[in-house]
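ingest -> fold -> write
write: protein_1
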Amino acid sequence: MHLQVFNSNPHLTLAYIQSMETKIRFLPTMALLIALLSCITLTSYKVEAQSHFPSPRTLAQYYKPRTCDIFPRMCLTEGSLGPDCCRKRCVDLKEDSFNCGRCGKVCSYTEVCCDGQCVNVLFDKNNCGGCGSTCAEGSYCTYGMCSYA
């Protein structure tokens, strides 16, 4: 009879008691984990806050990027975008549509920079469809194709 009273109350079943024991056993572990994560978060916040305002003594230690206006030979290295320097960037004045032929000369929306000149590759018979693509003698360039119907 005593066993029936114990089983009739769902909060006092053996499974419930075992689950509560498991939760109580992991409680110190969870508290330790939360404390550890809090310490890491607070420490990283302090390091980040210190790095925003360096002392004048450490300003000289910061990396200063090398730009082609100070080091012009860097535009001649392998992997450079071009041999010329415009506005602290390496460019190719023969192909760059924002620096075509000279620094700051921008080609219009319909033009492409070919050999340092802005040309419309849709209608230029010397650069039909792309730079250096010429049409045959007597033909014309229409919409980037030579002698289009």
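write: protein_2
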Amino acid sequence: MRGPFWIVHSSSPTPPTLSLWRGTRAGLVFSLRIILEKDYSGPVFKEPAPSEFQLPQTSLQIPDRVDVLIVGAGPAGLAAGRRIVDAGATVLIVDARARIGNPPRCGELARDNFMEVFGFDPEPDWVRWRIAELGNMPVLNRSATESGAARILSRRGASVAEGCALMGLGEYDGVGRTARLRSSHGSMEVYARLVIAADGAPSRVARLAGIDTLISPLETVSCLAYRIIDTTLENANNIRFEFPPVLNPHYFWVIPSGPSEANVGLGVPAHRGHAARPLLDRLMDETGALTGGKRIQTIVGWYPSTLPLETPFVDGLLVTGTAARLIDAELGEGLWQAAFSGAAAGETYVDVGERGTSAQELASYRDRVDRLYGPLRHGYAKRRKREARSG
């Protein structure tokens, strides 16, 4: 379960001022205000103007020309980078966060073949726990996984820039696109034969290329989760995943991340005005899935609960992961889909890059990710049916 934007604060009853970084849209603001409205009387969020972005320091000398520019160093961007770097192409991966992998996101539960699709052999700290009764499905430490994968790509020749945001994107000139980037050192331009949008929803990169990525608040899910340690779990070898009527058509989860720790959260319809914190606290008490413990982190976010982009490509650009809305609208699963689509994007460039990156050449990417579309449409239909039953 992955939300494209997550804002983390301490376990204090009153969260500190929260800063929203680039790409924040009206739907996100709406979602966060709903989830915090009755629990928190803090500031009203707005999207910052480009001149207001406060980016962390980056020391990397950014190249002015690469084969592929990847925007976003989550599972999609890193999986794409692995395939392209291994083929010997030049790659620049940029991410606006101060540290790749932070803040943490989602419940971190992945499919058992996630690492194979992701393209990396996991290091010991990449997996927090394995769910024995679900075939040893891994619960990731996403911070360690993503920062570790980025270091591996850097050692293999990729340029990886943290604290660097894409601010503008030029028209396709028949060969590639010019991207305008900004870091703590100022603005710069990079020319790339292909740009891969792996920046989550609603993808700013794809929108700059002319793809309509705006999402209605009616098709978003607000999420709230706690990281809890020193707790007594009902069953540390299985997850708890329920659809309580009060959350219809969405869900409550308990995902063990160790013998005495868990990620506990819920998804609520963003447009219904629920106060998520009291709901989550109540469900934790009612289900009996865990007893006691210490909340060490609170994570708030959202994800699109809609159909995937039908055409996730244009001249010189591919759209991957949650940026392409490749996320299960019923269950919120997006990690595996992100890695799969990122790998497909990388393989597409390896196959067609020498011939060019026009939309005609890149259309094979849609064929590669087509196996995702049937299950995602089915999940969306199930979510809509459950919602209709609730009135």
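write: annotation protein_2
Residues 169 and 209 are 7 Å apart (CA to CA).
The domain at 5-42+217-304 is CATH 3.30.9.10 (D-Amino Acid Oxidase; Chain A, domain 2).
pipeline exit 0
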